[in-house]
Amino acid sequence: ILLIREAEAGDAAGILEFATALPPHDLLFLRRDITDPEQVTALLHASETGLARNILAFDGEKVVGYASVAADGLSWTR
Fold first, then answer.
1. What's the DSSP call for residue 16?
2. Contact at 8 Å (CB) between 28 and 15?
3. pTM of structure
4. Is there a contact between 55 and 6 (Cβ–Cβ < 8 Å)?
5. E-assigned strands of the chain?
6. Please, is 16 exposed, middle or buried when counting C-beta atoms within 10 Å of its C-beta (0-12, 13-18, 19+)?
7. With DSSP H G I counted as helix, E B as strand and the rest as coil, what are the percentages for the chain, rounded to 5?
């Protein structure tokens, strides 16, 4: 059973573990480089301030999915 919830301040380590396990090609489709701890901090800050809704899927304690709806002004690129 998967748990789906909004990202919280304590999720940084799980997001980084999830992101570093992704194939490099998959990372091209993410708005932020979530393999970078500073970008994960920014992502969580955007969640806290309402600039983005970041959703995580968990299998137990492990992050297995990520989605974001953002209004933070970042442009989309490949």
1. H
2. no
3. 0.85
4. yes
5. 2-6, 52-59, 62-70
6. middle
7. 35, 30, 35
